[in-house]
Structure formats: structure tokens, C-alpha cells
Amino acid sequence: MLEADAIYRYARLLTERADVDSVLVGGRGEAEKAAAIIAMCAPGDRIRAALTEISTVEFVATLMQTDALLTGDTLALHIAAAIGLPTVAVFGPTSPAEIFDFDGLIAKTWTDRLDCLVCYGDCRKTDNCMSLLDPAALVELTMRQLERARAPARVN
Question: Which of 30, 54, 111, 129 would suit a FRET pair with 3, their CA atoms being 20 to 30 Å apart?
Fold first, then answer.
């Protein structure tokens, strides 16, 4: 996934564009990164952590309270698809072709600046598939997903 500074920039840019709070979700494995992001926050930043270590049910309940999600190819992505949560999914080491977009519910993105995508590895390159993603472009995708989340439900 994105590094802490990129996630912070993304959340700040998103807050500038929309009246939203950013909530960092995940489990024990994300605690260090979440703490680093929270440490970057200035007074008034609308960024908080809601890490769940107790159960998958608690994690699903947290996701159900959100309007849109930015994630990598993680458990959160699969849960979001199951609960109908508009999502921006970033890919690099995993394949976007393996994930359905569910008629736009999942907005998939990746960098086009590397030829080593879908390596399924743990890259040590300075310029890697996650560091080359533009937080502003991720905000644009998120804005579209927020519009989707806030659109009135269609009755067939």
C-alpha cells in the first residue's frame, strides 16, 4: 500500500476538496503506519485511526460506516465489494485483472510508469508501483466514488 506520507497527503487533499473525515482502517499490521500518519497531523486535520484487532465483524462494521474506501488489494477491498462500498483500489504487485469492478463500484488504478507490475513481490525500489501513484489522482477517483455513494438508490 501507499507509504504514510502519501496517505497523509491524500487525506489532506481529500479534505480540501470534500467535507469528509478520513479514517485509517486496518488491523495490528497497520498500527505503526497509522501512528506515523496521525503524528503528521496538524490541529484541525480530520484524520483519525479506527484500527480493529478484535474481529472481522468489527472491521466490517467499521467499513459499513464509511462512504468510500481507498485500499490496495486487501481484505478490505473484498469486504467493500461484498457490502457495496464504493472503492478506489490501487494495484501494483497484484493484478487488477483478477478483481471485478462491479459496474464501477471498484475504481481500479495503477501506475503506467513501470513495466514490472503484477510481480507479487515485496519491492525494494525507491520508485515503486505505490510511490509513483499521485495522491491528487487518487483524490479525483475518490471524489467520483463519493458521488456514487451519495447518489440516490435506483429502484428497478
Answer: 54
Q: String of b and e for 36-71 (b: at least 16 CB within 10 Å)?
A: ebeeeeeeebebebebbeeeeeebbebbeebebbbb
Reported as type and span, the H/E element at residue 9 is helix 4-17
**Burial class, 100, CB count within 10 angstroms (exposed 0-12 / middle 13-18 / buried 19+):** exposed
DSSP state of 96: G
% helix, strand, coil for the chain, step of 5: 40, 15, 45
Cβ-contact 34, 49 below 8 angstroms: yes
Average pLDDT, integer, range 28-38: 93
pTM: predicted TM-score of the whole model, two decimal places? 0.84
Domain boundaries, the chain: 4-144
